[in-house]
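Crash report, auto-generated. Payload:
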Amino acid sequence: MKPIKAGLLGLGTVGAGTYHVLQRNQEEIRRRAGRGIEVSMVAVRNVERARKIINSGIVGSEVEVVADPFAVVNNPDIDIVVELIGGYDLTRELVLQAIANGKHVVTANKALLALHGNEIFEAAQAKGVMVAFEAAVAGGIPIIKALREGLSANRIESVAGIINGTTNFILSEMRDKGLDFNTVLKQAQELGYAEADPTFDIEGVDAAHKLTIMSAIAFGIPVQFGSAHIEGISQLQAVDLRYAEQLGYRIKLLGITRRTTVDGKEGIELRVHPTLVPGARLIANVEGAMNAVLVQADAVGATLYYGKGAGAEPTASAVIADLIDVTRLATADPYSRVPHLAFQPTELADVPILPMDEIRTSYYLRVTVQDQLGVMADLTRILADAGISIDAVLQKEPGEKARTDIVIITHQTREKYVNAAIAKIESLATTVGKVVRIRLESLG
Amino acid sequence: MKPIKAGLLGLGTVGAGTYHVLQRNQEEIRRRAGRGIEVSMVAVRNVERARKIINSGIVGSEVEVVADPFAVVNNPDIDIVVELIGGYDLTRELVLQAIANGKHVVTANKALLALHGNEIFEAAQAKGVMVAFEAAVAGGIPIIKALREGLSANRIESVAGIINGTTNFILSEMRDKGLDFNTVLKQAQELGYAEADPTFDIEGVDAAHKLTIMSAIAFGIPVQFGSAHIEGISQLQAVDLRYAEQLGYRIKLLGITRRTTVDGKEGIELRVHPTLVPGARLIANVEGAMNAVLVQADAVGATLYYGKGAGAEPTASAVIADLIDVTRLATADPYSRVPHLAFQPTELADVPILPMDEIRTSYYLRVTVQDQLGVMADLTRILADAGISIDAVLQKEPGEKARTDIVIITHQTREKYVNAAIAKIESLATTVGKVVRIRLESLG
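Recovered output after restart:
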């Protein structure tokens, strides 16, 4: 059978990784797919640099290198366009053009899909082509496939994931070495684990892109990045990691999405924030730059998927798996292919994403107080009045005289009740500064 | 679109689970698959009991219940036969007959596929039908899909899994409570975690069935159950779990399959046995009846898949995912479907399974010795002469006077060298009884 022809947009880290793995494992891939997958055209800004990468491969002379990505997208000989440029303006245009030309698309671009996924999937559906994006979430872990196909018998209840390696690396280092955020960030940048401008990672935006995609697939709803609640780790203090540890928890940046019912109405939680997780959970023990996704579903129960969430070859692994899948399903009746968002496009549900006020979870609260009789009684009274029950309390001398840190772990409650209670606690004369509030998930 | 019609063979734990999940989640499944999946016929030994199970469902009146499984297999209205009977004589006949009748087959039967997989897949290939078996390995964890599709870009290097819940439950309890094997087995039987005749589980046969299937898929070789090395946990002593713990390891029953090179020739290791694993590894922390599979592959690196490996609904989750996949791929060009053993049938490799003498791993050795000068020197001399280097030594008084337990962790070596060294150690006048030898994998 003739090899399928792929055109690559971009030959950066992931693009070069994809090219090299396709070359190195071409036999293995052909033995699986039943036909070869050939990169016949590459579009890059720096054509000279690209030629060097390609010539370092086993065979490469037949690859056409161009500067104009539209030359790939409009080339009638290309069967599949592989978008590995990043960003969401030019790539939106390129992907829509590829679809209009009747080409299948494989992309690793989470931002593009989190922002323009609905438009792109609709165009692809109308044209009868596939847009595959395993590499957009959790790198080489086949989590899109697991959610969309592996668990297709289930009503999925929740997805909770460590889906940003940079922040997990930073949190692991902060905990291990007792260092503060800024010190570790600087080290991470020196080691190449964090980018020069790390905002997207450390502020949770990258994780929210990925979570938005998983949420859509898990629950059969459109992608709704605009409704995601996003908090990063840059405000986390080393002292809270230490206290969490003493209480038997670890702090992880989790992306959490969950079905819930508020006042009798269905809603979906969609949130990225630092989270206390019981130390005994497997996911609490995912260290360094690794990713893991925990899925709760009605029939199968809890399943967990772990691996490298970034990097040239782990991401290439997912890109190429998509290439093989697309090659395979290209011959199937379009209606029978795996739907982009797991559910048939006519079957997406209209369940609202909940505002944060309405979510239910537990909380870690740290209150610094003046060491005075009756302080604890005041705090516990405020929480009791708000209907918030207490799971654990830790009292610590932070080193400053006449001050005490009181750490409270609450049982589950609605966020708006906690926020109201915090406002009251902060208005007490004995409270010093702001209350630190970190959400806690038992993931039981 | 018309619902697809499935015929169920067997309505035991997994059969009833499959029936119930298909009923409960029929809307969710239809929204995903684009068409309904309907159980229209069930074959069971006890027709009355089956009617009760079916009538307890939401809709069930249209299900025909028969005593003769061949009536399902030969019914022209059935699209997919779901074999959930177990055993490998009658089921072999039924599955081959279903294939001959041009029906797709979904099965949870690991024994059947480990023993007769090659014959069955060949028949299916010739007839252009699919045999799907996600439920045969690790219950609800979509590990077949991950190995066969999710990691299809990779050269897979090794698979190591906790793939039998009964034995993992027993080992967790032995470690937790310091109890011996027989005591815990009895408790496990009372709790329903072990069967009345637990031989297949505790002696590693069930794990070897599953490992055989994963090995074939990972490396593109035929199923070769007859060449698997199988050791269970019934001979494990509580003292060795304790010593392992003191050295920083846990003992798990692992199924391990790995590419290797011996004397310049390619070979594949295929073995189930108790294994020491460093306590810090995620897989070492998989407790109770849970399953986990760790895959090493060249592009993606290490990935791990965790979840429930047995039970009515976790297994049903996998059975139904297969039903949906088969429904979907039924419309694809047969050549483009996912090959049964991951690689195209003409592309299976002829790499031999290695005899145990040739495998390379590390070892835990416990030698009980008479407390005498020079004993340690004798032991270490024997190992050094055999070219085996030592990673750690632990010396313990087992409580009997004038005796000492010497525990040695070796670096990697070939099994035949260790066995030869053990024979020499056992022939020493100072050695009491047999040397306990447990393999160790760093899984790094």
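Post-recovery validation: Chain B has a mean pLDDT of 95.
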